[in-house]
Amino acid sequence: xxxxxxxxxxxxxxxxxxxxxxxxxxxxxxxxxxxxxxxxxxxxxxxxxxxxxxxxxxxxxxxxxxxxxxxxxxxxxxxxxxxxxxxxxxxxxxxxxxxxxxxxxxxxxxxxxxxxxxxxxxxxxxxxxxxxxxxxxxxxxxxxxxxxxxxxxxxxxxxxxxxxxxxxxxxxxxxxxxxxxxxxxxxxxxxxxxxxxxxxxxxxxxxxxxxxxxxxxxxxxxxxxxxxxxxxxxxxxxxxxxxxxxxxxxxxxxxxxxxxxxxxxxxxxxxxxxxxxxxxxxxxxxxxxxxxxxxxxxxx
Length: 300
Ligand SMILES: [Zn+2]
Prior knowledge:
By secondary structure, the protein is α+β, with helices and mostly antiparallel strands. The protein has helices at residues 3-11, 34-44, 48-65, 147-156, 192-203, 208-213, 218-225, 246-254, 258-266, 285-299, and strands at residues 15-21, 26-32, 73-80, 84-92, 96-103, 120-127, 135-140, 162-170, 176-186, 230-237, 239-240, 271-273, 280-282. Helix 2 (34-44) packs across helix 3 (48-65) and helix 9 runs antiparallel to helix 10. The radius of gyration is 21 Å and the shape is elongated. The mean pLDDT is 92. Bound molecules: zinc ion.
């Protein structure tokens, strides 16, 4: 691979960039997560509507997490009454993001791209270093399109003037083609007129996926669209990544107790699936033998 190609591939990598306006009145994050959204669609075998709604949720989670530190994380949990009954996305500030979609029943047709969640609630939890318990806020779903609901959450529950743009598109085969998002928040000290100005700029933007298709990265997009000078605060690579492992599932099996484990083995229940990333873990007779040994050793 030549240098130009390497530069190009670094340039196109999934990334979340956070900036602060020079006057300190606005913080803005922009994420490109095309590969992340493609991985999510592939892992969970999702159709176009579900892939887009999950992509937008993953974008929203990465953007929300961009305001945190290190391994602090955000969970966006949408519960609906439509054909899609849950969309879950969880992101760490350092760039890992994972999530899934649950369906009401596999036969119900999803026809509405805009509101497949129907009515319901959005739960936003932040898991922070200095707090023993997650900080959770709940709002009713306003539109069920993820972006409006997330903005409504910040405006309503956290009283922070916020704009959210999430844009993910699929190709003719229903596969994610481009995906990205942007969040802007007004900070203490801002003037109302500044908010009106910036919201008007944001509502007249070209689609984010168009800018991404043009080959712009998040920092270049912010440079192009924001009407103010800013300082780059953070730039983080984003990946679909789940911390599940065979060990973590083994620990969970160990909590079931010997009888249940024997039953499990006899019933050939040797496959466990991670709900967050859809990775399959298989347990053979050797694994079961070692699990039983561990359990017996622990009980003695
Ligand atoms: Zn997993």
